[in-house]
Here is the input.
Amino acid sequence: MSFQGASILVTGGSRGIGKAIALRFASLGAARVAIGFMRGDSAAQETAVELRALGADPVLVRGNVASARVAEEVAALGPLDVLIHSAATGVIRPALETLDKHWDWTLSANARALLSLTRAAAPSMPPGSSIIGLSSLGSVRVLENYALVGASKAALEALVRYLAVELAPQGIRVNAVSAGVVETGALDYFPNREAMLEMGRANPVGRIVTPADIAACVTFLCSPE
Here is the structure.
């Protein structure tokens, strides 16, 4: 599998699953890997150094992934071969303890951002390109304190289906990858972190899924295979 010379964008690419995806594309020959990030300049700079060491030209896109400014920066990147929306956020609390602004923030970053990024990038993406949204188990199963994020990921998956059909005539594939429980820093925001990890181990493999596992799945879906 090779992505020699490819141009890639990974939102949420400075840490966790997004970083693993960005580094895997670089290791497979991508010429340019742009990573979107909201905060944590040092983590983004460290990732840029690692990308450069793998032979890729890193580009840092900082800001709210759902904003018009970020969409303009993405359009200015020129033709992309791969667009990965891995950035995710949300308010982790019971549904009745949330506010409308929590809903707006979570849905905007996790679902609407994929639409705005696709509107910015798809017109110049060549046939054979891929778009992938990272989903989660909460889109189809009820997880404690996960109402807003789960709803946003369900919306993401529905949007992926519509985009897949609309962009198929252009030769652009659109998929979602649902990672289940992955041990990253994001779990630190869950009050029931240990219970989540225990649930993650209850699979046929008997271990927690790793960011590298997800990166391998993503690159496969983006390949001609």
